[in-house]
């Protein structure tokens, strides 16, 4: 690994750590500030029953939406930085972008893909809540759709991203 | 009337958030069945610590003073039965409101938000008065059907505490006040709708809602503040409502 590649990898690691730290912060503040139920066996039992109790999932969708939003923004900033290397030197750009092909970076890209898909689909769901006037139960069902679409598209994307290093 | 009985040796552990760090916060109380959260608090007050701070008044879910968080969930203490198999519960004060003592919170921010939307009917000056004909909204009218299901708010602040935005002190009017605003904006006898729609369209208004649905899920009276918020979001742009 060359010095520019190492520096880029460090920058990516810092971004990843910042995202994890933000995720922890969101969940910790939620526990103090947010009047939602704690994660407990009782909550899981309630979520297992169909009906309005499952609306509680939307609280977690909100947390995930925030975390994925910050993650995408943080990565975008890094990505603007590494793409702009082309302005300085084409060789430097190619050298740094080889890092994207490493296994560790590909795992990060898979995480990013899932974040992007969830954020996009959930954003569409939130627009649909207004446009189609979705109530508590309908909106929860739409959330199942969001999760299903994220898993499906993310799964296909994962195969494409990881295939070169696995196969 | 339900038959209350106690099984011998049956106990419930209750953790209560105390504002005085030196005060006891773990209690064991005798289990009765059925047992409301308020029963547990009264048992603590009777047998362990008379100084424990909590509020209640009517005990029938009408006054909205006894709201607390049980295992994180905002509920009326007097109306919430402790699950049959529970051996331990944790009781916290409401989220998003300053704690006065133990489980007693200062509800001023909640009522401040309530006040901001002019929470009373402002009648037409000419139409009001002793000689005026009473204005009627027919029971089967669309207007009445919109208003009626949203009327029973008791101001308990369970929705405020359950809202991930209002409870996190993010400058949000909150679900109860917005629900009240919707009721009055929908009322054809009211003349302050334009003012209320201006208030709900500010940065602290309806656009702060992220549709977490904590409010509608928590309301002990079964109201749907999220629906009121969706309506207000549309009505801002729709003169014909
Ligand atoms: S004591 Fe009045 S609502 Fe609970």
What does this structure look like?
- The complex is a heterodimer of chains A (167) and B (241).
- Chain A is mostly helical.
- Chain A has one domain (3-166).
- Helices cover 83% and strands 0% of the residues of chain A.
- Chain A contains seven helices and no strands.
- In chain A, α1 (3-33) runs antiparallel to α3 (57-83), α3 (57-83) crosses α6 and α6 runs antiparallel to α7.
- Chain A is elongated, with a radius of gyration of 19 Å.
- By secondary structure, chain B is an alpha+beta fold.
- Chain B has two domains: 11-100, Ubiquitin-like (UB roll) (Roll), CATH 3.10.20.30; 108-235, Fumarate Reductase Iron-sulfur Protein, Chain B, domain 2 (Orthogonal Bundle), CATH 1.10.1060.
- In chain B, 28% of the residues lie in helices and 12% in strands.
- In chain B, the strands form two sheets. Chain B has a five-stranded mixed sheet. A two-stranded antiparallel sheet of chain B has the order 6-7.
- In chain B, a hairpin with a 2-residue loop joins β3 and β4 (73-76).
- The radius of gyration of chain B is 21 Å and the shape is elongated.
- The model of chain B is unreliable at 1-5 (pLDDT under 50).
- Chains A and B meet through α1, α3, α6 and α7 of A and α4, α7 and α8 of B.
- The site of FE2/S2 (inorganic) cluster has 12 residues of chain B, from loops.
Topology:
The complex is a heterodimer of chains A (167) and B (241).
Chain A: H1 3-33, H2 41-48, H3 57-83, H4 85-88, H5 90-97, H6 103-131, H7 136-166
Helix pairs in contact in A: 1-3, 3-6, 6-7
Chain B: E1 11-16, E2 26-30, H1 37-47, E3 67-70, E4 73-76, E5 88-92, E6 99-101, E7 104-105, H2 108-116, H3 142-147, H4 158-162, H5 175-186, H6 193-200, H7 214-218, H8 225-235
The structure holds FE2/S2 (inorganic) cluster.
